[in-house]
Amino acid sequence: MPTSRPMRADARRNRETLLSAARQAFLDGGAEVHVEDIARGAGVAVGTLYRHFETREALIEEVWRSEVDELCAAADGLLDRFAPLDALRRFLLLLVDHSAVGKGMSVALESIMATDSPVFDDARTRMADALTRLLDAGSAAGTVRGDVTGATLLRALGGVCTLRATEGWIDEARQIAGLLLDGLRHGATHPA
Amino acid sequence: MPTSRPMRADARRNRETLLSAARQAFLDGGAEVHVEDIARGAGVAVGTLYRHFETREALIEEVWRSEVDELCAAADGLLDRFAPLDALRRFLLLLVDHSAVGKGMSVALESIMATDSPVFDDARTRMADALTRLLDAGSAAGTVRGDVTGATLLRALGGVCTLRATEGWIDEARQIAGLLLDGLRHGATHPA
Amino acid sequence: MPTSRPMRADARRNRETLLSAARQAFLDGGAEVHVEDIARGAGVAVGTLYRHFETREALIEEVWRSEVDELCAAADGLLDRFAPLDALRRFLLLLVDHSAVGKGMSVALESIMATDSPVFDDARTRMADALTRLLDAGSAAGTVRGDVTGATLLRALGGVCTLRATEGWIDEARQIAGLLLDGLRHGATHPA
Amino acid sequence: MPTSRPMRADARRNRETLLSAARQAFLDGGAEVHVEDIARGAGVAVGTLYRHFETREALIEEVWRSEVDELCAAADGLLDRFAPLDALRRFLLLLVDHSAVGKGMSVALESIMATDSPVFDDARTRMADALTRLLDAGSAAGTVRGDVTGATLLRALGGVCTLRATEGWIDEARQIAGLLLDGLRHGATHPA
DNA sequence: CATGAATGAGGATTCATTCAT
DNA sequence: GATGAATGAATCCTCATTCAT
Fold first, then answer.
1. Across the interface, which of C159, C178, C182 has its CB nearest the CB of D159?
2. Alpha carbon of C152: minimum distance to chain D alpha carbons (Å)
3. Which residue in A71, A179, B61, D111 has a CA-CA distance of 20 to 30 Å to D179?
4. Nearest CA to the C1' of F4 belongs to which residue?
5. Greater confidence, B142 or B113?
6. Could you tell me what percentage of chain D is helix, strand and coil, using 3-state DSSP and rounding each to the nearest 5?
7. The whole model's pTM is what?
8. Long-range pairs of C31-38 with CB within 8 A, sequence gap ≥ 24
9. All domains of chain A, ordered by start, with CATH?
10. Segment D85-95, tens digit of pLDDT
């Protein structure tokens, strides 16, 4: 009886479905989603939800973790392939798109930033670190001002993701990203 | 609450105390404060709270309205006394200070932006309008780019106010305000 | 606003009713009574129960405490008025009657003895102390053997109270009390 | 479970293991053990548990039955080899030891006595009958008072078995057994 | 047969709101 | 008018039992 036998196929599927349902529920109804709703949204009973996630909080945390994982990886990937400023721009737009396709990032970001619960310390730190890497690269290249930290930019991104199915929000979000990018270029030593 | 009969002095005092207590409670405990706590904070019983405010939502709305009134008035006052770009800068810093002195603006803004509940439509619209007046003045003067709406800037301000007693958040908030301001100047026809 | 204004008449009445209902519920259904049942039994809603008692456990504890208070007081009263051995005999019979009139003592005793939860340490200790006083008096008078502690007698009393609406249980309980009493006299220095 | 086909060796082994695990679980955690825990303790999955026992209750009943079988057999064995009063004394001490060696008797007895569920009627009756045989023998020999029934003594034994890993409980249990024995001798026609 | 994932009724607790005092 | 006790729907979580793999 190995401690971690590979999860049964249907169980893994349910786990994924639950995570998706939770993401969707966050998008639809904000942060105070009810476990019953998530379960119903995934087409399973609450018991199943609790088999996969210790508590409501644990599920929420997991949703965030996966979102953050994805984004951090993207940030590093962009840095490998593009010039720093361009990587930064693309990352901000990625954030917008990420929110757009309903991946739940908007709520994630919002919660990560709006709370100081230790539960999200990790997510916050990793996001801030990813942003710091982008900013530092730009700063080293002289195309981004050097006095803004990843943590600060993370806060500033709130507006990009704080949206709720408003008409035309995508263009709005892109414009905000553009504003911040212009602001970051403003004091650079080698203005692009 | 018939307009005809003026409210008794103690009743009016209770009303004000309740509004203050609610503001303070929002600051201390986020948005999901309990009515009991607000009432206790005001030194009255829940029954008294309900005499003055139809529902919990009505009280919250009222708190927001007064915050927004104050800020909108400030925006117009600044426009009267300063050049548009300067007025905009001062307004952004005012927002930061407003949050700083515990006036509850941060939570207000957050809620106004993060919800699309019709309850806050009014507050949202008035805030956006105030910002639009500031932006339009700058745009007319050629010191602010002309393609950003008040509604968009309102969203972008989320990061300025989304803070929770973090060490050094004031400097962070000011820096974000600065970033946005620089971004807004970037495409202006007459760069300052 | 004095910290402890005397409780309103109807509130006090509800509190008492709830305690009675809880006692009755314990008698009827053992220790795993449901809060809803207790509340219904008292003719109030669960919310009222929770206004008076922090948690289910707190209510149970309170029931026990009042039962134990009553019995300990009785023990001391008997010692004042009767010779030690007689006081002991009367106390044991009192225990039987106490169970008989549905005061819930049986379940109380059972729970007190069958658990080592710190919640009941106090109740256990006070009961044991009361019994020790009775035994010591008898021992000093030479009518009760001197090597049995109150704690041990408390355990031995389990059988007196462990009963569930059996036909003829009162006589049975009295007989058990008699057996123990005879056992306690057996090694006395001055057999009665 | 048709009697016709003998149970497979591994199936029988699982059944035994489950009974042991249940006994142990009762000892460790009281009466409200969870089926999952029992199954885990036996190293099998719940499904296997349910293959062997219709319901949780059925398993519990089975545990009790085997305990009671063992004790009743012991009672009769003692009567064959010792004088009635001696047999009774030894039986009471056996009960103590039985509890001591973790055979689960304490919980069994407790449950048998503390419930009037028809589920345990059988166990209760057989235990009472065994005690009655011991008492009757003593009564016939004139060394035990004749007016106490096995059922009553069964109830009185509660205190002997109601124990939870208390320091020094064995001596306490033996002393209680001694008290009861002395009480039973007290009114005998031929006091020992 | 064994496994352990899924079910879902049931139970404890919270809190906005009402209403007797 | 003020008080704070009572209400009860709503929510999170548990666990005996079933059933697909």
1. C159
2. 6
3. D111
4. B45
5. B142
6. 75, 0, 25
7. 0.82
8. C31/C60, C31/C107, C31/C110, C31/C111, C35/C59
9. 57-185 (1.10.357.10)
10. 999 999 998 88
